[in-house]
């Protein structure tokens, strides 16, 4: 039997190699959806190799079996396809700190190559502090097979972590990831969750509180018993307060409707009040200060947004910057530069002293000179 020869044009070879590359890409996407940005480079190399190998084996059609020349009119310019990624953002509730974290996250993503509408789409959902809403949102993200989830606050992170072990999760505004059972350890997460902690020095915050009333004998702490992060901070505060020889008095709430009664239960028992980075309290600071102002109680909080809303002061973090730090981590994951399992939990890069001078004046508190000199002054008198 005589040898058969097949004739291909250069353009046909390119089309065939492109088709093969697309098939390879389809298979690869099913297996490795997370590493899309790395994948493209390897697929291009495969395609190029196919073109080269087929070109070497081509037998020309035409006079004298000479290789056919490519028609420049049929050559297509090479274009870089933009990969669109889908990011789900789940926020536990709406208040200043969490809103700022979300804004910082999106801005950092843009600064690191992910521009909304161009190569990233965001599906933002606010759970309004409702557990059933959290479950519904988590199921939506998993069902839509989003490329990454940004979880804002501990309850949101816990819900999505319980819903998927495959989709990368980057959390923010979570105090202790290990304590919340989100990771094996803060140093080596081990699974699909990583992020940035909003833990700051609680002892520094208590020390600041006592500067406003140096003769205080009893320190009150109010927090939500539904939030793991708040319980942890309250325990740390209790240890430090009692170590100073002061009386520790606490009141807990389960929702915003409990705040007024819980605050009233503290009146006459405490000299100063501490509020940790608690989502329930953060969403209703004006409600709290309406009660505490009656007793001229100074309040130091865990977050700067709470000071803007009517508390006296804090040594806290900027949640916008916290969100930006989280966005940088997310961008690395989407680019295939890192995996959540091996990314240690990060902490806020810096803290800031914030004072609400209007509140100090209203309560008749003389602010120490060193605080006035070093603090960022904000307004935000309670309505």
Instruction: Please count the helical segments.
Output: 14
Please name the fourth-level CATH homologous superfamily of the largest domain. Answer: Response regulator
Regarding CATH, which class of the largest domain?
Alpha Beta
The topology string of helices and strands comes to: HHEHEHEHEEHEHEHEHHEHEHEEHHE
Rg for CA atoms: 29 Å
Strand order of the largest sheet: 2-1-3-4-5-11
Oligomer: single chain
CATH topology description of the largest domain: Rossmann fold
Structural class: alpha/beta
| Tally of separate domains | 3
Average pLDDT number: 84
Distance between the termini: 97 Å
CATH architecture of the largest domain: 3-Layer(aba) Sandwich
Q: Give me the count of strands.
A: 13
Strand content: 15-25%
Please estimate the helix content. Answer: 40-55%
Unreliable runs? 1-81
Sketch the major β-sheet: 6 strands, parallel
Overall form: elongated
Summarize the structure.
It contains 14 helices and 13 strands.
Protein described:
By secondary structure, the chain is an alpha/beta fold. The protein folds into 3 domains: 10-69, no CATH class; 85-198 and 319-347, Response regulator (Rossmann fold); 202-316 and 351-378, Rossmann fold, CATH 3.40.50.2300. The protein contains 14 helices and 13 strands. Strands 2-1-3-4-5-11 form a 6-stranded parallel beta sheet, sandwiched between helices. It has a 4-stranded parallel beta sheet with strand order 7-6-8-9, sandwiched between helices. A 3-stranded mixed beta sheet has the order 10-12-13. β3, α5 (154-163) and β4 (169-174) form a beta-alpha-beta unit. α3 packs across α12 (319-334) and α8 (259-266) runs parallel beside α10. It is elongated. Residues 1-81 have low confidence and may be disordered.
């Amino acid at each position: 039997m005589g040898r058969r020869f097949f004739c291909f044009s250069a353009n046909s070879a390119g089309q065939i190699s492109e088709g093969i590359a697309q098939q390879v890409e389809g298979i690869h996407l099913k297996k490795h959806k997370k590493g899309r940005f790395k994948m493209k480079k390897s697929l291009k190399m495969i395609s190029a190799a196919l073109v080269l190998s087929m070109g070497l084996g081509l037998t020309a059609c035409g006079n004298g079996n000479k290789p056919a020349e490519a028609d420049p009119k049929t050559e297509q310019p090479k274009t870089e396809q933009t990969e669109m990624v889908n990011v789900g953002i789940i926020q536990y509730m709406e208040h200043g700190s969490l809103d700022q974290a979300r804004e910082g996250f999106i801005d950092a993503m843009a600064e690191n190559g992910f521009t909304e509408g161009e190569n990233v789409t965001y599906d933002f959902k606010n759970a309004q502090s409702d557990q059933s809403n959290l479950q519904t949102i988590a199921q939506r993200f998993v069902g839509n097979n989003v490329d990454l989830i940004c979880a804002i606050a501990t309850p949101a992170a816990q819900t999505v972590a319980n819903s998927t072990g495959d989709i990368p999760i980057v959390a923010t505004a979570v105090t202790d990831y290990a304590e919340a059972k989100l990771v094996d350890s803060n140093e080596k997460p081990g699974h699909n969750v990583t992020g940035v902690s909003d833990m700051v020095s609680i002892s520094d915050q208590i020390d600041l509180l006592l500067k406003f009333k140096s003769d205080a004998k009893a320190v009150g702490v109010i927090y939500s018993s539904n939030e793991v992060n708040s319980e942890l901070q309250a325990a740390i505060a209790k240890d430090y307060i009692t170590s100073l020889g002061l009386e520790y008095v606490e009141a807990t709430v389960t929702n915003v409707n409990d705040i007024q009664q819980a605050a009233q239960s503290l009146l006459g028992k405490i000299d100063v009040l501490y509020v940790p980075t608690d989502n329930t309290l953060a969403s209703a600071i004006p409600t709290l200060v309406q009660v505490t102002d009656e007793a001229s109680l100074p309040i130091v909080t865990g977050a700067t947004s709470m000071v803007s809303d009517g508390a006296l002061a804090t040594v806290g973090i900027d949640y916008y910057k916290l969100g930006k730090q989280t966005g940088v981590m997310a961008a690395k994951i989407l680019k295939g530069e890192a995996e959540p399992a091996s990314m240690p939990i990060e902490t806020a890069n810096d803290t800031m002293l914030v004072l609400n001078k209007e509140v100090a004046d209203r309560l008749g508190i003389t602010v120490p000179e060193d605080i006035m000199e070093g603090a960022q002054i904000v307004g935000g008198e309670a309505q």
